[in-house]
Amino acid sequence: MSDYLKEIISGTWSLFVGLGITIRYFFQPVVTVQYPHQTLPMTPRFRGHTELVPDPESGGPLCIVCGMCEKACPSNCITVRGEKREGVKGKVLTEYTLDFTRCSLCGLCVESCPVTPTKAITFSRDYNLAGVSKEAYIFDLKKRLEAENR
Amino acid sequence: MSALIQSQANETFVLNLGPQHPATHGVLRVKLTMDGEYIVEAEPVLGYIHRMHEKMGENRTWAQFLPNTGRMDYLHALAFNHGYVALVERAAGITVPERAEYLRVITTELNRVSSHLLWFGAFILDLGGFSPLLYAFDDREHILDLLESVTGSRLTYCYFRFGGVYNDIDDNFVPGARAFIKRLRERMPMYHNLVTKNIILMKRLQEVGPISAEMCRKYGATGPVCRGSGINFDVRKHEPYSIYPEMDFEVPVYEQGDSMARYMVRMDEIEQSLRIVEQALDKLPEGPVMAEKVPKILKPPKGDYYHAVETARGSFGVRAVSDGGNIPYRLKLRSPTFSNLSLFGEACRGMLLPDALALMGSLDLVIPEIDR
Amino acid sequence: MHVDPEILRLVAFLVGVIAFAALNAAYLVWLERKEAAHIQRRIGPKEVGPFGLLQPLVDGIKLMTKQLIVPAGVDPVLFKIAPILVMVPAIMSFVAIPFSDTLVARNLDLGLLVIFAFASVNVLGLLLGAWGSRNKYAVISAARVVSQNVAYEIPMLVTVVTLVMISGTMNLSEIVGLQMGGFWHWNILNLAASPLMPVAFLIFFVCMLAETNRAPFDMAEAESELVAGAFTEYSGMGFGVFFMGEYANIVIGASVATILFLGGWDCPFGLFPGVHWFLIKMYFLIFTVIWIRWTFPRTTFYGLLNLSWKILIPISFVNLILTSAMLKVF
Questions:
Q1: Under an 8 A CB cutoff, do C295 and A34 touch?
Q2: Residue C216, preceding bond cis, omega within 30 degrees?
Q3: Contact check, Cβ <8 Å, A107/B200
Q4: B196 touches chain C (CB under 8 A)
Q5: Are residues A77 and A144 located together in one domain of the fold?
Q6: Is ipTM over 0.85?
Q7: Among B2, C70, C89, C134, which residue has the fewest nearby CB atoms (within 10 Å)?
Q8: pTM reported for the whole predicted model
Q9: Angle B237-B243-B248 (CA atoms, 0-180°, nearest 5)?
Q10: Three-state SS for B15?
Q11: Above 70 in pLDDT, residue A128?
């Protein structure tokens, strides 16, 4: 009998303790960020999709068309094309396509890039990625770079 | 049991729990044969999100498979990374710098805490309590911010590399991690007062869904499930890897085997993980975070290799057969939840539906890891 | 043309009661979302109108424009009539509730009985809807609802009988009239009648939660077990009417608790009694109901029956015997 009453009393008390905790939080300020109106600062290391790095002097891509990133990519989502041109050392980039529909954002491409001292590809900070067509996510990174230069 | 089923053959009905059911946390389907609200038989049906990770491993280089590991158990991605990376390092004979090992342990343990916090919230949600989920997410968000500042990603980190880690921590990480440990230690009593000591929760979990040590051995259950049944087994202690032997931590073991025991194991593990992180932060040595001589194209010598790590859900083992090429000949992944789920069918026989769901929640299922 | 003023009064009250019930149902959803959000340290609805106050309107439009799916194989009559069976008794009960000494639709001598009679019909609506929707989850839910209500009406009615014994009437206005003059006259603190009165209030409140299928006794909905229980197959306004019925039932439950235990429209300090005090007390109880929902996990079915048969019923009987003894002695 005393166990029975003890359980009722301790049980009821545990319920009131719980209610006390939630009501305390009720009067505390909210912790959420109202996303479209407010945004949080991005970490500098954010791994978004890749972006070509421009040459600080010419503004053209630093890419040397070695194809290392193409080979490193686990999902085969990178296509790099280049051509030999008269009077230019090495190859010139003609096409760099990132099929973002298949990309898993692992960052192996950036890691494999042999260009020094700054790598020829980097991560973008772009996280507002929403669209209505699949084609919009097959990025032509060379065009994006040119658009940025303009 | 079969005689019982036959005699009631026309009184039972089949209830499809899932593939879209709020309590199965993903696309698991459980075919329940029910007698009223009592479960006569339960049969988990798997494979709705099977992605052939093992076969994918045979089609790409050793390094290219790395991102896949985090996709299996997205809640404790770093431990899966760790298992695979450690296996390849063992196979190729790469020694990892000490600082990198420390960073691996720190981030893995933080990730374990975040996984347990999410489990805690989702489990209470299964039992019908809403607010603890949001409180747990509030804390978890701090871990994700910390890990994002190191790895650049919030869920599928892919932070470890063969021979080290992807990049070094920044200056804010150590104080940030210490502040988080302090914060979570202050919050833990709140969780216990709000949830653990709550009479409704105690009534729902105590002596509900008992799993015997015998059953754990039979089905190969590991992690908190077997530790809740009195089996003291933790890969970190019993097959030590990385720097765990240098860490001072306890393996929480509860004898009861009921859902409450599994709940308590995980809650205690959060505290133990915080202890490990704290010690590792204290001892964190200076130095490089990447081994110097890691070949660009990795070709581990011919042989058969195995490495196991302790994830939030149990022991994750990777077995690889190398034929000396740059692609694994065979990759076998032993994921903990697959074994933990397989005992569900036997354990929930004769239980009521809500109790069976409490049992299923206490197993901490992550479906992509079961289906791989 | 001469119209009997009594009929005009009735029509006015009917419109008023329906409007009150519908408005409450709509804005309690808003209150629930806001309160849940703040307990969880979020903001809740805030985009539609100031503080999201127009959210119920938008929700209503959304529910109304949605297709009413009648799945193949359901019993069409039961399936369609069930939401109404839940909604109508709840609105009917408002007729007997005195909001103040003058504001009452029908001052019935057996008002208390009317309310409990209508409260029982509500269960029937859920049962028929669940049975008619030909869904296994719904049928399990129906079985739970019925046995839950059978178990909880006993302690509730025993507690109410205690109160009727103290008051000597089943007229709700008179019950409140006996409690006028400050909070020490309220039944919850009527320790002279029985020292267990605060406990009786707790029992009544718990039974009210169970009667209205609110958490932690929301066995009928139990979304993590039975998907949506009795409402699984309902869509659009069919679901909406169920929902409004549930909230109207909560308002009724809180009103009855206010009348029986908290002195109705009486001011705690004996000053300015009136309808505002009734509403303050009622909404405080509703706030508590929502607060409880967002704090506790759900009980299991047998846990709920254990609570009822092993704890609530014995205690309420002890209270009944104690009260009758006290009434006889003093």
A1: no
A2: yes
A3: no
A4: no
A5: yes
A6: no
A7: B2
A8: 0.88
A9: 55
A10: strand
A11: yes
